[in-house]
Write a structure and sequence with these properties.
mainly alpha; elongated
Length: about 140
């Protein structure tokens, strides 16, 4: 069944979405590079922190691709990825503040993304807002 123009979801990668996809892409690359270097050179120093950085990188990659592609399935994937990102930054951020010894080395999400100017804390909020804003439009009567 084809979607009519009035009920089709908006493009997640168009307009403001292009900027959002670009920011996610930068975080995907930077988190991947950071995790790769940490895991390759000093994994034993903080395996949990470095694996979390790798996980964050994977989440950013999935979110980037899903937001750029748009469409029903990609939108659902983006909602899950950005929601996981939100939970991750809140949980890891809180633990890293309350129990600093749990993270002897910083992750992308440590201290709510302080090492990245708190962008990791703001990004999923903006991402979820954008996904909602570009969600299914209600038919006009």
């Amino acid at each position: 069944m084809a979607e009519s123009p009035s009920t089709r979801p908006g493009e997640t990668g168009a307009g403001f979405g292009r900027l959002l996809v670009a920011v996610y892409a930068v975080f995907a690359v930077s988190a991947s590079a950071r995790a790769g270097v940490q895991i390759a050179t000093d994994f034993a120093a903080a395996p949990v922190a470095y694996l979390l950085s790798g996980f964050a990188a994977a989440v950013y990659i999935v979110a980037t691709v899903a937001l750029a592609r748009g469409g029903t399935t990609s939108r659902r994937v983006a909602v899950v990825a950005v929601s996981v990102e939100m939970v991750g930054v809140l949980v890891v951020g809180l633990i890293s503040v309350l129990v600093p010894a749990a993270f002897p080395e910083a992750t992308v999400w440590s201290q709510f993304g302080a090492g990245y100017g708190y962008v990791p804390l703001v990004l999923p909020v903006v991402g979820l807002w954008w996904l909602r804003r570009t969600g299914l439009r209600r038919p006009r009567h």
